[in-house]
Each structure stands twice: as structure tokens, then as C-alpha cells.
Known about the structure:
Strands 1, 2, 3, 4, 5, 6 and 7 form a 7-stranded mixed β-sheet that branches. The chain has one domain (3-97): Alpha-D-Glucose-1,6-Bisphosphate, Chain A, domain 4 (2-Layer Sandwich), CATH 3.30.530.20. The chain has 134 residues and is mainly beta. It has helices at residues 102-116, 118-121, and strands at 3-11, 14-21, 30-39, 48-54, 66-67, 70-79, 85-94. The longest helix is centred in the C-terminal third of the chain and has 15 residues, at 102-116.
Amino acid sequence: MKEAKLLKTISDTEFYSYLVYHQHAKQNARDVIIHTKIEPMTASKPYVVFRLKAISDYLPLDPPHIRMLTDDATIKLTPIAGNQTRYEIEGTAFAGDMPVWALPYYTIRGLERRVKDRSVTYDKSPLPFKIMTY
């Protein structure tokens, strides 16, 4: 991930964000606007669901970035034993001439880097959204 910024907050469970994915030197970076809806955990539903949908016309094109027309996903986070969380992701993305294996590979590598980054895992700064309790 080269850049990520919050564009608009609709509510504590809905927002728009802008992402730029870094590519190989021979390829232009991809950008995408994502509309995210969060389904909070409840007493009867012990997991959180994030529904992400690309909105290609939310902002004007930003050359030399290549706009991703599709980058849709459902992410499910389920607490399991101890301080562990099961992470499930299912989605569809089209990033132009990028090889079909590349996006899933870079997604997992990026997630791996983030969970191993102590500045992220031990970050004590306030969250940009409300913690919802049930």
C-alpha cells in the first residue's frame, strides 16, 4: 500500500476511503475508492463483517495511476481462543494488466507486514471510530 486516506465518514459503520497500491517498477500504481460498510459484532453474531465495494466514479481519475474498477470484498473477523482472531476474506478485483496471482499475493503479504509491525500492533492512539458494545 502506497497511500491510504479517509475521504468521507457517513457513520461509525460506513465510510469512503482512497487507496493507492504500489506496483512493480514496470507498472503504474493502481488507485481505488472503496465504500466500506461494517456490520458490528453482536451477542447473537460473534464476529465483525466488513463489506467493501469499489466506487470508480467517486473521484476524477488521477494519472498516472490506473483506476481499479472492481475491488470488492467481504472480510469476516472472528475472535477465537486467547488473543487470536480468525481472518476470512473473499473478494473480486480487477487491476488491469496485473497478473491474476499478484493481487491475492500482495494482499496477504501486506497483511503479514502489518501484523508483524510493532508500531501497528502496539499502537495506543485513539481509533478513528467508536467501539460498539453489545
